[in-house]
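Table S5 (text form). Sequence records supplied for joint modeling of the two-component complex.
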Amino acid sequence: MKRAILAILILVMLAAAPVFARSTYYFTGDQVFSIRAGVNFPGFFTFYKNPERPSQFFWNTHLKLGGFASIAYQGYVSETLALGGELSYAFNYSRSDILLTTVPMTAKITWVPVQTGKFDIAMSLNLGGAFIRYNEGKFFAPYASVALAPSFFFTENWGLGVEGGLMLTAEFYTKNSNKNKASAFAGLLPVTMVLSYRH
Amino acid sequence: MRTHKTTILALALILIAAIALCSCNLDATDGIYSEIADSTESTNVTIKSFLGIYNDEYYYLSDEAVRKIGSGNAVFGSSEQIIVRGASLNTTDGSFLVLNQNRNTLTANISYYAGATANAETLDGTFNGLLPNGLFYDSSKIYRYNAGASAILSDVAVQYYLVCGDYAFFSVKDADQNYKFYVIQASTGTKLIDGIDGSSSTYTGFQRIADDDYVLLNYNNSTAKSNLYKLTSAGVSSDIWTTPKSSVPSAYSTQAASFLYNDGDADYVIFKCNSYFDKVKVSDGDVLQISTGFAANLRTADITNILESGTAGVYIAGTVDSMLYRMDIANDTSTQLR
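The corresponding structure-token record, covering 537 residues in total, follows.
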């Protein structure tokens, strides 16, 4: 099912690209400020240092549906590539009703292969770190995310879109740590509305 | 061009900050994601203690009633005037003792019920507490039920108590305001430790491991960890027996649930402070820390008490907000009962 949806999205994008990509809308130096807000689905936990423990997916992670919000600023360094940064906040409650917060601070690179002036399809990669807090535990984790966002610009400057993606964080413990087996990768799936201002 | 430089500078600063912060990692108290994956389901029911099993029914004391698993109705509930503060189930004959406190006067009495549907027989006197094993006390005496309130100990003021099954540890002040320690077997009223010199220390865990050997758990503020101490009729040993691995530094918890388990060859105390269960082997009056990690999916649960189920190797744990759990030692499984 997931593969089918992904395949359809890629096909739609590829089909649209030749039509829209004949000319680009953005110029080097253009800037985009965007804010996002939406929901955050649990994705997976993988305890890669503990072979006895199988990976847990979606609700089996024992996380509930949460929320996601962010602000981002980017500048175009070419006609299709924008660079900048993003500050985000994500939260989920566990089934014990304890709050998990993830605060990523990242560099953000966005590729906009489809851009008509009215309609964009953007793909983003974020890299950086995230403050993670749960119960009495705190951690600063490496962080990466990928996202796909089609947007419609209803004025020259303002646009509204939907973004879906995968947030990936990791919890590393050394071989000598008694928490070694707790080393994990965690995935969360934010789906947000994106409000963009460009000039 | 200027915009380029600004963007690249901002990007570089973010990356440098991220790398710097990663290098001084704030180590989590325990694995955060494994703690979430092990989290137990909150049920919005507060359990004060698991009372026991009678006729295959699992009874527990919630914050306002005596209830049993699978039933929406309280067995003994609170009312506008009365709130249920304590309860005890005699699993041999199915009788109950219930401590009812008047919401206005705050005085409490104890009712005896011959069964879950029997009429109440109110005991003479007003009482301050009722333990899950049936011992109860007022401002100067400790009692057990024996066709009425039968005093076991007099002229003492209970400071606090710890319960493991049929046994209870009491720290009291005597008539001269001296601290004394007692261990009392509820079913017989026997004083197994009879008024040894005590202290103002507040122990958080207690387990009987042999006829005259007991374990006490004490939290050490200076090390921010809990330690096991030996209690006998001679007193509390000043030497630390062992420090449970489950005693997570700086994560103080007053809960210290434990149970005694015999695998056919040796006795073990399985102890939980504030994280995993620790398995401690009892050998020749000594204890040896042998493993930790049992019942991992209960490590985030606040456990109220653990009792034998009547089946060898199977124990029932009451949890503060995740109902009851059935723990099977042999295959290390724990499943929620609700």
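Note: The beta strands of chain A are 31-46, 56-57, 66-76, 81-93, 99-115, 119-134, 137-153, 158-171, 184-198.
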